[in-house]
Specification:
Strand order of the largest sheet: 2-1-5-4-3
CATH topology of the largest domain: Alpha-Beta Plaits
Helix content: 25-40%
CATH class of the largest domain: Alpha Beta
CATH superfamily of the largest domain: Reverse transcriptase/Diguanylate cyclase domain
Shape: elongated
Number of domains: 3
CATH architecture of the largest domain: 2-Layer Sandwich
Number of helices: 16
Structural class: alpha+beta
Amino acid sequence: MTYPDNSAWMPPAFWVEDEGQRLLNSLSEGVLTLGRDGLIRWASHPLLKMFDLTAHDLLNRHPHTVFHQPQILQSQCPDCQAFEAGAVRMSTAFLSSSGQMLPVRVSVVPSGGNRNGTSLVIEAITDETERAQSLQHLFDQIPAAIYLYQETFVYANAYFLDVMGYTLDELREHSIFDTGVYPESQRDTILATVRRRLRGEQFTAKYLLEMKKKTGETFWTQQVSNTIFYQHQWMGLGIWIDNPEIVQYRELAETDSLLAIPNRRAFDGALVYHIQNAQRSNKLFSLVMFDIDHFKTINDTYGHAVGDRVLQELVSVIQQKLRVEDILARFGGEEFMLILPGTTIEGALTQAQRLCDHIASHHFTLNYQLTCSFGVGMWSPGQSPQHFLRRVDAALYRAKARGRNRVERS
């Protein structure tokens, strides 16, 4: 009795008759025979050709270690779990020797009345709908967020949906603008980029993006996007990971190293965010700009080390008078910004005067009496960040011109 090359190493208990082997080798589908321990004992020629493998590649290995990405643990593999739960047919994607994922349909057939193990019949999928389902099944196994989008979401894998708190049907009613925090000034540019992808333009983009969950909670991600042709349409493919190190690096980049409060970069982002929020939700807010009167004299007289201590002390004094939601930021040098969410112009003027009086009465380092000048404004619909800042800066300038240690309204 003779055997094909790929079965010469099979233990006698799993030998099949020549007639059976020839029949299996003549099929278009691939066939794997497994022992009762779940390890591969035999593979048909069509299967070896389908995945560009040799019999030696498969001998006494578990199908999971051959056909799945190494980072997917067998204990966490949805395919393995489905078969162990009794599934007899499923669509998925298997890894070939070249590293490509091939959409396949897998059927489980008991061998020898289930005494001698199991056979897997593996068929390449050519139907577009079933190919899509198998690829989506594969995406659900990957521990990173994967999504497809046009002007609204087309698809997102299980990881994306779990982190963001949506169902797939819910997500398909939203655009990418609903799940990310985008500066208003960039929305037209981003929309134009999406439309380039819908025309089939091929380009890769890498960027950091603040994502917004269904609950409103936000977190930072590292994103990569590209253009793909999927189900007869051009669309965008996005992948992101939520890496805690991103948050750490961003906090370092947006925090003043001396005062441990937001810096100019962080303030600019916060101002744009509150303007966007006001436009969407009709939520008002006010802005206070202030700086230290004659601060150059302190540095010239006592030195920059003392000047630094004065700045630190000033921040501590001001923070004692702020709400949790208020944002104090260093704008540059001895200039500061204070964003007051949900505060009218009258409330902002009252708070600025309270701070002005509190600073003037505080005994700072070296018993130096410190005063500050304040400009106050409330955002008005249609105002750009630049226009709003110019208004408040002009009010601060008037406070300086009218004798300092005072509050002026824009």
